[in-house]
Design brief:
Layout: H1 5-24, H2 31-52, H3 63-91
């Protein structure tokens, strides 16, 4: 279970990041459920991308590993939510 903890942190942080981005960017807001789903996807992708670049957590559960997972997931979630929101907004015009 401990090996999955960074991924779980990234997914939860992604959902939070997606919802924060939705509040900060109301024109791109997908609603709470849409923001959360996009954020979860972005959190997983963001954490994986940071890991591939060697910038993410190495799976350790020390403070820096946890903060890396939170940051990667939150930023990834916000970015993916904004991209999906922009695409949805552009398609509705």
């Amino acid at each position: 279970m401990e090996e999955y903890l960074p991924l779980i942190i990234q997914l939860v942080s992604g959902a939070a990041g997606g919802n924060v981005a939705g509040k900060l960017l109301p024109k791109l807001n997908l609603g709470t459920l849409g923001n959360s789903i996009a954020g979860i996807l972005g959190g997983g992708l963001g954490g994986t991308l940071l890991g591939m670049l060697g910038l993410g957590t190495d799976g350790g559960m020390d403070l820096s590993g946890i903060l890396g997972s939170v940051a990667g997931g939150g930023v990834g979630g916000g970015v993916i939510m904004a991209i999906i929101g922009a695409i949805k907004s552009a398609m509705s015009k």
